[in-house]
Specification:
Number of strands: 24
Strand order of the largest sheet: 7-14-13-9-10-11-12-8
CATH class of the largest domain: Mainly Alpha
Oligomer: single chain
Distance between the termini: 46 Å
Shape: globular
CATH superfamily of the largest domain: PtsI, HPr-binding domain
Number of helices: 27
Radius of gyration: 30 Å
Strand content: 15-25%
Number of domains: 4
CATH topology of the largest domain: Enzyme I, Chain A, domain 2
Structural class: alpha/beta
């Protein structure tokens, strides 16, 4: 059965549509188990019924017509119980419902398995046989496994609106679809989707058509020649290093590109109206599928070769198509795994939004997008990339929501929200030079997180009192090798001068996790628990010392530098880092004669171990800063960049609040300055709780600062303190959010933390 399962999974993964997925499942599962019938019922939320969507064994005319209520029939019972149902005589069960139009009279045995994705029942997978017997336990286990594989494809179809377009209920013509990702830069963008040509996934190629088939065929043949040239050059360069058998593989590739039947299939598809990319990917996927089904192991393994070759040719086809692409006036850039480099080819004034299927809210692209103020969503894994080109999209960067083909009503609502946001931001500009003092007299220092030159300009305009976090790794991302000491010094000097005499807290190089340098790759099974932050700096003192020297030199005559060490998990790490900083300081002052004051050095509290060593750390540094992003993910054991568990990541979780309370109490007892530089500080509701817990320095993005200031100017300190103490006693994040919504529900406050329309 393992071979059958492998074949089904491979076919499902290479399918280009939901109907094709369902067809594969019912045909291959029926064959694998020698069943009489295999059917798939999917849930239609519009009329709360389970609809027969595919079958092999029942009458095809019944598809779309058989509809069962929530607990109706055996299908409804399986869905309601959320567990398999295996019956020897299904027609004798109290829940049995007979549909004459299906032609299921001869079938007695019944096996129904729920299709569940992230706790939600999406449908039911059913097998039936004429014999009166229970399906064997290994057969049941096999169907459960297939159901789990199927659930992801159906969830994707539901999220992207494919199920609606299949007209399950037969009512309504709206093609509007909504799906979700990770909100990475706030704002609302409305425009036409422009697909980046970075994806090499053959299954994600859009369904494009052409009017000039001759030009498309020319592009196709040029791409073939380019790929063939690559193979010839690569083979020639490796000929002396490979055995004759290994070298023969390059000749196989070249022969495949010369294959008249393969080329002929693609040319025929182009002549029928398909674009070259679409035709090529469809033909290659068909051949990959054929190879994977072969009995011979050697031939079966050639499927990977065909796929690799297909990707290489696709790359050349995409390059040609992007060159000829015309960018709309209002564009939404969409891609599989976008990097900041793609922005170099697009006029920023035309870019209304960015969506990436992969990536995180802390990726280089997300940071650049925040600096530019472009609404951005990362990790939108359910995005139907191949279907979106040219479609109108709405990017809700507040909630991480994308809406394709929005209705007029939806579009009007978001346009109104855009206008309201612009008016609100203009109104908040009036607060720029007003000190942030809560009613009751509590003074709060509002700082900014920065990393780009554009950030600096926005930060100064926002009224920031200092820089609480300068991400020094960003200049490292923008180079092809480690920047020299002089190059770093010039960058840091510019930042320090821009804010002087206000202080600038520079975090030392924080790479690893989801931030890898292209010229310093880190390949790990679990990068967030691996080699990152201060661990890399201590293992590579030659890199760390150069950076510290550059910072110290940049601060000469300005004396507004503060140095912050990331990812500290023990006193020993901190002491090693301090020794290296002392060494760099002594080199510059004693040996090289520079007149520099030793800057304050601080540590970040972002791993649970540091929470319980605040007093010990406080005795060795001048300040501490809490990174709530990492602290939350480590405390909750939730990868904040994983869409599957994104709903579990919440910095208002009582455990996070308890940790923040402990940190604040211990730091205050030690007389150590304390700040927060994570995303929670830039959330108006989070800022209320933080001030209530006793935090007096909050650092955030420049775009979030005006709303936080407005909130704190209106909320009495006594109320913030009361809310924080009540929140510490609650059982979950939802209860904390409910408390804040009730107590801070005045219209003048809700507009600051509820900016989304849906």
């Amino acid at each position: 059965m393992l071979a059958n399962l492998r074949a089904i999974v491979q076919d499902v993964n290479s399918a280009r549509s939901l109907p094709e997925v369902l067809s594969i499942i019912v045909k291959e599962l029926k064959s694998a188990l020698s069943a009489g019938v295999c059917s798939v019922y999917l849930f239609d939320p519009r009329d709360q019924r389970y609809v027969l969507m595919a079958t092999e064994g029942l009458r095809q005319t019944a598809i779309g017509k058989i509809r069962l209520g929530m607990r109706e029939g055996l299908v409804g019972l399986v869905a309601a119980r959320e567990e398999p149902l295996n019956l020897q005589n299904a027609d004798q069960h109290a829940n049995f419902v007979y549909f004459e139009e299906a032609g299921e009279a001869p079938y007695h045995s019944f096996l129904g398995v729920p299709i569940i994705h992230q706790r939600k029942v999406l449908g039911v997978l059913v097998l039936q046989q004429t014999t009166e017997r229970r399906f064997a336990s290994e057969e049941e286990a096999f169907v459960v496994t297939v159901s789990a594989q199927l659930s992801g494809a159906i969830a994707h179809a539901e999220a992207t609106g494919v199920l609606k377009r299949l007209s399950l209920s037969g009512r309504g013509k709206s093609r509007e679809a909504t799906f979700h990702g990770i909100a990475s830069c706030p704002g609302i963008g409305i425009g036409r989707a422009v697909l980046s040509a970075q994806s090499s996934d053959l299954t994600l190629v859009p369904e494009r058509y052409c009017t000039d088939s001759a030009s498309e065929i020319k592009l196709f043949r040029e791409a073939l020649d380019a790929a063939k040239s690559d193979m010839q050059n690569l083979g020639a360069g490796l000929q002396e290093k490979l055995s004759s058998e290994e070298f023969a593989l390059f000749e196989v590739y070249i022969r495949m590109l010369d294959d008249s039947s393969l080329v002929g299939e693609v040319v025929s598809a182009i002549e029928s109206g398909q674009a070259a990319q679409t035709a090529w990917s469809a033909v290659i996927l068909k051949h990959v599928k054929t190879f994977r089904k072969m009995d011979d192991v050697y031939l079966r393994e050639r499927a990977a070769d065909v796929s690799d070759l297909g990707k290489r040719v696709l790359g050349y086809l995409q390059k040609d198509s992007m060159t000829a692409a015309v960018l709309p006036r209002r564009a939404i850039l969409v891609g599989e795994d976008l990097s900041a480099a793609v922005l170099a080819d697009i006029p920023v004034n035309r870019l209304m939004g960015i969506i990436s299927l992969k990536g995180s809210s802390n990726s280089h692209l997300a940071i650049v997008a925040r600096a530019l103020g472009i609404p951005t969503i990362m990790g939108a894994t359910n995005l139907p990339l191949a279907e979106l080109e040219g479609q109108e999209l709405i990017v809700d960067g507040f909630k991480g929501t994308v809406i394709s083909r929005p209705s007029r009503t939806c579009r009007r609502a978001y346009l109104q929200r855009q206008r309201e946001e612009k008016l609100l931001n203009k109104d908040l500009e009036k607060l720029r030079d007003i000190p942030c003092e809560m009613p009751g007299g509590q003074r709060i220092a509002l700082w900014v997180n920065t990393g780009l030159r554009h950030d600096t300009l926005r930060s100064l305009r926002s009224g920031a009192e200092a820089v609480g976090l300068y991400r020094t790794e960003i200049p490292f991302f923008m180079r092809s090798s480690f920047p020299t000491e002089d190059e770093q010094m010039a960058i840091y000097r510019e930042q320090l001068q821009a804010f002087a005499p206000r202080s600038v807290t520079m975090r030392t190089l924080d790479i690893g996790g989801d931030k890898a340098l292209p010229y310093f790759p880190i390949d790990e099974e679990n990068p967030f628990l691996g080699w990152r932050g201060i661990r890399i700096s201590l293992d590579h003192p030659e890199i760390f010392l150069v950076q510290i020297r550059a910072m110290l030199r940049a601060a000469e005559g300005l004396e507004n530098l503060r140095i912050m060490l990331p990812m500290i998990s023990s006193v020993g790490e901190l002491e090693c880092a301090l020794d290296l900083i002392d060494r760099a300081y002594q080199e510059l002052t004693t040996e090289e004669g520079l007149r520099i004051e030793r800057p304050p050095v601080g540590a970040m509290i972002e791993v649970p171990a540091a929470v319980y060593q605040v007093k010990a750390l406080s005795r060795r540094v001048r300040f501490l800063s809490v990174g709530t992003n990492d602290l939350t993910q480590y405390l909750l054991a939730v990868d904040r960049n994983n869409p599957r568990v994104a709903n579990l990541y919440n910095s208002l979780h009582p455990s996070v609040l308890q940790a923040l309370n402990i940190i604040c109490q211990q730091a205050n007892a030690a007389g150590c300055e304390l700040s927060v530089c994570g995303e929670l500080a830039g959330d108006p509701l989070g800022a209320v709780l933080l001030t209530g817990l006793g935090y007096r320095h909050l650092s955030m993005s420049a775009s979030g600062l005006p709303k936080v200031k407005s909130m704190l100017l209106q909320v009495p300190y006594s109320l913030a303190k009361e809310l924080a103490q009540r929140a510490l006693k609650l059982s979950d994040a939802a209860a904390v959010e409910g408390l804040l919504a009730r107590e801070l529900g005045r219209p003048e406050l809700t507009k600051l933390y509820q900016p989304s329309v849906v």
